[in-house]
UniProtKB/TrEMBL annotation:
Record carries keyword Transferase: yes
Origin species: Aquilegia coerulea (Rocky mountain columbine)
Molecular function in Gene Ontology: sulfotransferase activity
InterPro entries assigned to the protein according to its UniProt record, in alphabetical order: P-loop_NTPase, Sulfotransferase_dom
Membrane-crossing segments per the record: none
Record bears the keyword DNA-binding: no
Family assignment from sequence similarity: Belongs to the sulfotransferase 1 family.
Protein name: Sulfotransferase
Coiled coil: none
């Protein structure tokens, strides 16, 4: 087995050598593969998943660009699909003691940790998350009846959020892991050179799919979730084939889920406040919660940055009607 693993590692190493690469915002090398930029471990994980992940009709796949509200989406969808088992007033609700990333795994991450993990024992509906484009999803996700939910966010807020997150993952002792100057990082972001970028290609892909096949792909925006979480929760539940009943609505089940998963509630839970428990990407659970607001970019981006990114959005997305 170890020979097979090391052959696969060598093959991946050769692949990386053949790809264009560029420094990313935390001075890590990103690689361009099929039109998108990846950190090597993410690319390795998703290529392994393409070979081994077998989707089931009942699976639910959450897709996001990093920093667009993945943590929130994971908590919302978990709470909706498990609401019979765990009511939100339940003291044993898993979100009270586990960070959403510990509940809903990233496909690229579990297949990086182990190229062929056993995910068959996970009770259905199985929830998985990923940051990859549709074209890179394992084939069985496309061919089975499993549902996809895509969440996007204003790229200006994504950039600001990413910048703050990047500051958490840099290593003071590792010169290869430092934040590059903000202007440089911003230019790269606008060229799509960012984790899983370009964000517009990914958003466009899932936006078009949601129009062509609304039963398969539900397209959501972070700003809409912030604007009216109740109607968005209903929409998600319908998409997943488990709409809220009138009884549930009058009994406050939807409000309860919204409250349970709110930024204020989740970020104040002990499990999401502790430091030193570096669960994912060498960051603390608390690093997934910063401000949780719409429009914080106004406090961080210069006028010329705003102009630059507005131009990118206009040029790349205007024909899709996607606005932020
Ligand atoms: P900010 O940095 O703008 O505050 P991701 O989960 O994809 O990594 O995205 C992280 C962003 O979502 C951060 O944005 C974080 O604060 C915000 N976030 C995390 N949990 C949230 C929640 N329950 N409700 C709203 N926003 C949330």
């Amino acid at each position: 087995l170890s020979e097979v693993v090391s052959a696969a590692k060598n093959e991946f190493h050769d692949l990386l050598e053949s790809l264009p690469s560029e420094i990313g915002s935390t001075s890590d090398l990103l690689y361009l593969y099929n039109g998108f930029w990846y950190a090597p471990e993410d690319l390795e994980g998703i290529l392994a998943a393409q070979q081994h992940f077998q989707a089931q009709d009942t699976d639910i796949i959450l897709v996001t660009t990093p920093k667009s509200g993945t943590t929130w989406l994971k908590s919302l969808v978990f709470s909706i699909t498990n609401r019979k088992q765990y009511t939100v007033s339940d003291q044993i609700h898993p979100l009270l003691t586990t960070n959403p990333h510990g509940i809903v795994p990233f496909i690229e991450q579990i297949y990086y940790d182990n190229t062929n993990p056993d995910v068959s024992h996970i009770p259905s509906p199985r929830l998985f998350a990923t940051h990859v484009s549709y074209t890179m999803l394992p084939e069985s996700i496309k061919t089975t009846k499993c549902r996809i939910i895509y969440l996007c966010r204003n790229p200006k807020d994504i950039f600001v959020s990413m910048r703050h997150f990047g500051a958490k993952i840099i290593s003071p002792t590792n010169p290869a892991c430092q934040l590059i100057p903000v202007e440089e990082a911003f230019n790269k972001f606008c060229r799509g050179v960012t984790w899983f970028g370009p964000f517009w290609e990914q958003a466009l892909e899932y936006c078009e799919l949601s129009l062509e096949n609304p039963d398969k792909v539900l397209f959501l925006k972070y700003e809409d979730l912030k604007g009216d979480i109740i109607s968005q929760l209903k929409k998600i539940a319908v998409h997943l084939g488990c709409p809220f009943s009138l009884k549930e609505e009058t009994e406050g089940v939807i409000d309860g889920i919204a409250r349970m998963c709110s930024f204020e509630h989740l970020s104040n839970l002990e499990v999401n406040k502790v430091t030193g428990v570096r669960s994912l990407w060498m960051v603390d659970n608390k690093d997934f919660f910063r401000k949780g607001e719409v429009g914080d970019w106004k406090n961080h981006l210069t006028d010329s940055m705003v102009e630059q990114i507005d131009q990118v959005v206009e040029q790349k997305l205007h024909c899709s009607g996607l606005t932020f």
